[in-house]
Design brief:
The chain is α/β, with parallel strands linked by helices. The chain contains 20 helices and eight strands. The protein folds into four domains: 77 residues, 2-Layer Sandwich (GMP Synthetase, Chain A, domain 3), CATH 3.30.300.180; 157 residues, 3-Layer(aba) Sandwich (Rossmann fold); 70 residues, Orthogonal Bundle (Helicase, Ruva Protein, domain 3); 92 residues, Chromosomal Replication Initiator Protein Dnaa, Chain: A. The strands form two sheets. Strands 5-6-7-4-8 form a five-stranded parallel beta sheet, sandwiched between helices.
Amino acid sequence: MTQEQIWQTVLAQIKMNVSSVNFATWFANTKISELRDGVLTVSVPNSFSKEWLEQKYKTEILNILGSVDASIKDISYIITPSSRKLSNNTVRISNEEQLGFTELEKDEETNLNPKYDLDKLIVGPFNEMAYAAGEAIIENLGEAYNPLFIYGGVGLGKTHLIQGIGNKIREKYHGKKIRYLPAEKLITDLVNSIRENKVEELKKEFKTIDVLIIDDIQFISGKTKTQEEFFHIFNALYQNNKQIILTSDKHPGSIPTLTDRLRSRFEGGMIADVNMPDLETRIAILKQKAEEKGLNISFEALEFIASNIQRNVRELEGALNKIIIVEKINKRPCTLEDIKKQLKNIISIKTKTTTPEKIIETIINFYNLEDSNLFISSRKKEYSKPRQLAMYLLKKELKLSYSVIGRRFSGKDHTTVMHACSLMEKEYDQNQKFNQEVDMVLQRIYSE
């Protein structure tokens, strides 16, 4: 068996035991360098991969190597930068670009930002369904999944994903008219057209679009006239096999005061959720971001950041940006202790606390409840469910007694609160959609 065959055998077995994102991140760009005196040397593209393989996979790799060739007793790694790595003569990105303070100009025709490259999106179990649906759409525009409805919490990469899909469609289908709109812009355009008696003109313009991408569609909640006009726009596009892609911070079934006919349309295609990535995927994201920003940061530091920032991918990048600023001020690389000191105020919601007022306020805002008094006492479902969730979180997060919780809700007795908490606990354990909904509420509670 040749040296290359030995390593390919190792990779084949590793691939069976790790996720596709971890294999692509840590193993895909490795190769045999040499085999001498029982030591197999493998070349890796950067220090991140070297440290990760040494610390996380050495025992597993040696066990596989021992079963393939008993003469191999140890493994070492050398860093062989890929051709994509910046050379000494390459102009590095500016400080502003490194810190993420500037963005490439948006395309005036599509409103898409070219910085959102689908090829640079880290894909893992947390977003693979949404990503796969996007790929299917790119291949079969208007036919695969229509509409595609992607939902998930703030800062998890939904905008990157849908704009990346839009940019790929633009590359592949040169004659197609694509339009990306934040929901706020859609609402503004519709309101202005209604005020100026130009609704038909606006709807006529929308009918010429081949791919409509709307971000944060939940903002049309409670806007009756906007929903009515958007329903007609949606139908016109859908009936002509025009592709529609939507994002929201919650499942269509959880968007309050959304008309039944729109909810039905949103649920009629493919619904895919985006969750918080696991630890290894967060490290992979940090690794990629650090390389893009030209930041030389140790594996221990990456692992520390990824272990402690768990609910928001944007916070991961924010942590890197803060490290870059500190390094520029100190004119030296940050040590792990430096990083711990600088990030102590933003790491891990485990160290954060909340209040009953914050929990109740967050739930009122999350469900867009216009009358908080009805939230306290009304038996209507749109108020009773958020109220029961508030009771559940007051118990779960703050360990308040049932009696204390009851007094915050018009003096309800402790058995009512116990029943509400029991219902929510059961729903959380059995209903994945509700589970994700609760996680998004918690993210908001602890994000500020």
